[in-house]
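--- STAGE predict ---
source: upstream dedup step, 1 unique chain passed
mode: sequence only
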Amino acid sequence: MDARDILVDAAGRPADGARKVLEGISPDVANRMPDETHSSISWLVWHAGRQMDAQLARLSGSPQIWNADGWVRRFSLDRSEDAMGFGDRPDDVARVKVSDPELLSAYLGAVIDALVAYVRGLSDSDLDHVIGHFGGEPVTRGVRIVSMIDDALAHVAQAAYVRGLLENWRIGY
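--- STAGE serialize ---
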């Protein structure tokens, strides 16, 4: 199996998980913050997409889908256009509210579609190219892509956990 095929398969998993978490969910449950301080499902799925979108834009040199494809207007959040969730406090999280949870799934899906298209256009040497350093160690383009996918998966898993807390819900496989 080719490395790009593995990345494409992995990239689709956050969207699949988000669709399951958001299926049949009410806006009230999606937007509810446990104990008024913890991240809501809406924030978790929104951030999964936003972090991936921002990092993909930096890697590819393309504009963020959030702005370029009008998602910022569709969401109409009480947040700055460039907000993506890093460093958010509970009052920031509370301002990520959606009236239609499908919007969250659609945005994450659009970002993942863009990531898949980007990955399919890369060569082995592109994946091995060092794009920066972290903790003194080189970071390759491939490792950054894995990190983006991992972050999205972690947030979608947290969203599933929160839904379980709020509704005694279980993801069905």
